[in-house]
Every structure is written in structure tokens, then in C-alpha cells.
Amino acid sequence: QNSKVPEARGQAEQIVQQAEAYKARAIAEARGEAARFTSIYEQYRVAPSITRERMFLETMERVLGPMNKIIIEGRNGQGAQPFISIPPELLRRQNPPANSSAQ
């Protein structure tokens, strides 16, 4: 029984430390989100239409980015083609600037 009391106190201390760490993380995350919101709001106050457009484009990029896309040409949808996205860094590696080889 004598060993159970210190063991229980140790477990209790560990639980308290974990709770305090969680609290600190939650507060830091909330402060970060609030700061981000305030920043976006300030941008919106200065230029509402530009901020709205940027937020829309960022959302579409995040939502549609990982999806497979198909481009449909024409009104009847006869010209459907898969859209292949090539990362810009890959394009730069394959096509170095023209002036770099001349030097």
C-alpha cells in the first residue's frame, strides 16, 4: 500500500502536466486563428472585392487541388480531356532559361 500512494501521485502529476500542455496548445492555436482572422478582416476592410476573390481562389485551390479534373470543351461535351497538372518546379527543371546556356 505504501508504494501505491506515491505511484498515484506520480500518475496524477503526469495527468496534470498533460492537461496543462493541452491548455497551452489550445490557447496558442486560438490566438493564432484570431490573429489570422484579424489580418484577413483588415485586408477585407481595405479591399473587399479583392479579398473576397482571393479567398475564393484559395478555397478552390485547396478543395480542387488533389482531385482529378476533366476539361470539357464545347457546349455538347464532346471534347472531354483529362487535365494534367505539372508542378512549376518540374517545368523549370526541364526548360532552363534560354540566357543561362548562352553564358
Would you kindly provide a written description of the structure presented here, covering whatever features stand out?
By secondary structure, the protein is mainly alpha-helical. The protein has one domain. Helix content is about 70%, strand content about 10%. It has four helices and two strands. Strand 1 and strand 2 (about 80-85) form a beta hairpin. It is elongated, with a radius of gyration of 27 Å. The mean pLDDT is about 85.
Summarize this structure briefly.
The chain is mainly α. It has helices at 4-46, 48-64, 88-94, 98-102; strands at residues 69-73, 79-83.
Q: Tell me the domain tally.
A: 1
Give the overall silhouette: elongated
| Proportion of helical residues | 55-70%
State the distance separating the first and last CA atoms: 82 Å
Percentage of β-strand residues: 5-15%
Structural class: mainly alpha
The main sheet orders its strands as: 1-2
Element order, helices and strands?
A: HHEEHH
